[in-house]
Amino acid sequence: MNKMGKLFAILGAIVYYLCYPFVLIFVLLGPLMEFPVLLEIFRLGSPREGLTLGLLGFIGALLYLSYRYPRLGWLYKRFPVMVPLLQMFFITLIGIELAIFFANLWADKLVYGKQIALVLAILSIIIVRVYLSFWYSKYPISYKVHKM
Fold first, then answer.
1. What does each C-alpha distance from 128 to 9, 16, 47 come to in angstroms?
2. Is 7 a domain residue?
């Protein structure tokens, strides 16, 4: 690797390690912070902002990098249960954000009625939970933890 490549690798690792604590906070506390936002949308009937698609993409990219490159994923060597935990919380966060999106379509733009928005929001959370159940029945957590 040339000098410029090493410089980019070092700068990328610095940015990664500066952002990673925030990624952990967002992923682990995100579903707990965003679910009350969803309930508030239905209770008050006014739109609320959740996490943006760009932020979810950025968090997903950092999680992918930490899974892909062992130097960035040193935390998973010490705490192997973090891999499935972060995956479950991140996918659940995506489901809640999808539910907030459907609820905001009702509350902000009146695309459909409140009952349809409620059904779509519940359906998005159920689909995510069914997906997680299927995924972890096919690839159990104990398999992932012992694989590391």
1. 35, 28, 23
2. no
